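Quick one: structure for this chain?
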Amino acid sequence: MATEDPPSDALVSVAIVDAQGTFKDCVSAFLTATGKYTVPYTALNGKEFVQRHGQEPPTCIALVDMFMDEMNGAETIQWFRANWGTTMVLAMSAKRTPEVMREAVLAGAHGFFPKHVGGLELLEALGRVYQKGSYFNDELLKEHLAQPLADTKPIVLIHLTPPEREVLEAVSAPDEPKWTVVADRLNKSLATVHTHRASLFDKTRTISKAGLVSYGRANGYGRSL
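Got it. Here's what it folds into:
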């Protein structure tokens, strides 16, 4: 698998929030050694991160563990969305289930990385998130799609609010814009767009930007831009 590298003329800043100190330190050292990333902030849980780094300049990307004692992954992701709106969050966990991945997405994560898959895929994930705005492990997505239909809640009618329809229209555009571009085109804050994004994921039962775009285009969205 070829990794997607960030632009070579600048280091991409990454914050790491992970309850496993050894894992956190190893990832930090690994990313720094690539010469493409810098890791200015780390913490063992969301509460510690907010207390130590909440007033610092935002990083480009944040790696967030889903299972932490104080401010769990979902709460920490929500903090990033509300306070560091330009930071793209890659959730991660050793518990690699579709349920955990869905929890991360609904909290506002731009992707999900199973910890067991190793360093090369981590670089792939970071590159995808940085360049394309989202990343999801292919194997885990297949597991999610393979779940029996009986395990999902049927939706007879999906009611979308006017702002949700606006966001779905914009993100379904032919150029597949990043969420920051969607916010600019709609003249909305990124935090507001992410709020509608989470609601759209929930209502349409999609778990990724690609899935949401597919849903939108299948239902006639994305043709007016």
